[in-house]
Structures are given as structure tokens and as C-alpha cells.
From TrEMBL:
SUPFAM superfamilies: lambda repressor-like DNA-binding domains. This is Putative transcriptional regulator. Gene3D superfamilies: lambda repressor-like DNA-binding domains. Residues 14-67 form the HTH cro/C1-type domain. Coiled coil: none annotated. It holds the Pfam family HTH_3. GO terms for molecular function: DNA binding.
Length: 136
């Protein structure tokens, strides 16, 4: 039997932090200026160059040390704590910085505005076509 410890798989840690941040591979790729496939390869890698790790950490809003020291146990500890201030634990900001409902309402308002603009454009088009028909 082997008593070898589980390897410190940086790629899996990056993947988990990205997921906890609610970020898709495509979004991380876009921020890093690389392809989604490259992000997938990073997340499959046991190790990553320090320079690339720094870039990934910056986009994820954590430190490279936070990625290296990340564990599911620390996330569970954060979630079970009852802190109500904007504290940072293990380099990860765990209080949301926005209200998701506010974001949804912003999108609803934006959709209404776009719908009104589209409706106006259609009415203008109909009016223009009616003028053309009346001239004939």
C-alpha cells in the first residue's frame, strides 16, 4: 500500500475557484486573452508557471498563494462562518460585492428599453413604407 499524499493539483484548484466565482471557462479565457481550450488545459495541469498563475489569480480576484493553499475544507469553513463584514479569508473575498436581484432588475430595465427602441424602429419602418405606397 502506498502512503503517498495526494498531489497539489493547481489546475483543479483554479477550476474550483473559477466555479465558486460563477465564472465560465470562456469568461476566464477572454480575460486572459487565450482560448477556452487553453483554460481547459490549464485546469487539467498539475502545475502551472508562476507568471501564468499570477495572471489567473488576478482575473479570479485572489492571490496566487490563495490558489496554492486552496482547499474545499477552507471553503466550507468560510461558508459556515457568520461574518457579516467584507472580510478576506485565505485570500478569497467571500461576501458578494453586489446584489444579484439588482443585477437582474438592471437587465429587465435594459430589455424594456431595447424592446421600446425596436418597437419604435418597426413603427418608423411601417410609416415609411406606407408613405412609399401612397406616392404610387
Amino acid at each position: 500500500m502506498s502512503t503517498a499524499t495526494k498531489p497539489n493539483h493547481i489546475g483543479r484548484k483554479i477550476s474550483r475557484i473559477r466555479e465558486l466565482r460563477g465564472m465560465k471557462q470562456e469568461a476566464l479565457a477572454m480575460e486572459l486573452g487565450i482560448s477556452q481550450q487553453s483554460v481547459s488545459l490549464i485546469e487539467q495541469s498539475e502545475t502551472i508557471e508562476d507568471e501564468k498563475l499570477e495572471q489567473v489569480a488576478k482575473v479570479l480576484g485572489v492571490t496566487s498563494e490563495a490558489i496554492k493553499n486552496f482547499s474545499e475544507e477552507s471553503v466550507l469553513n468560510i461558508m459556515s462562518n457568520t461574518f457579516h463584514d467584507n472580510s478576506v479569508l485565505n485570500g478569497v473575498l467571500y461576501n458578494p460585492t453586489f446584489n444579484p436581484i439588482d443585477k437582474i432588475m438592471e437587465l429587465v430595465d435594459e430589455n424594456k428599453k431595447l424592446y421600446q427602441e425596436l418597437l419604435k424602429a418597426e413603427k418608423d419602418k411601417i410609416s415609411y413604407l406606407e408613405k412609399l405606397l401612397n406616392k404610387k
